[in-house]
Design a protein that fits this description.
Layout: E1 2-7, E2 11-16, H1 23-29, E3 37-41, E4 44-45, E5 56-61
Parallel strand pairs: 1-5
Antiparallel strand pairs: 1-2, 3-4, 3-5
Length: about 80
């Protein structure tokens, strides 16, 4: 099965998948781990263990919080 995948903010690629490939498999094929990205079909999240049943999928990378520029413990001088 050929699937067009748009990674939001990064571009679009086409992938050839096995007939029993899941959305987690698709995310891996696009170069991401399923814990760092989600698949959307027609604007709705789909479970990673569901077999791919769409010709067009959007992959949304999940963003985790990180350090801030201002450290509250530095006292400012």
């Amino acid at each position: 099965m050929d699937v067009t995948v748009e990674v939001v903010g990064e571009g679009t690629e086409e992938y050839s998948l096995a007939a029993d490939a899941t959305y987690d498999d698709l995310i891996r094929e696009a170069g991401y781990h399923p814990q760092e990205a989600s698949a959307l079909v027609d604007g709705s999240l789909v479970p990673g263990d569901r077999v791919v049943d769409a010709d067009e999928v959007r992959v949304l990378r999940l963003i985790k919080g990180g350090a801030t520029d201002g450290d509250a413990t530095d006292g400012g001088a």
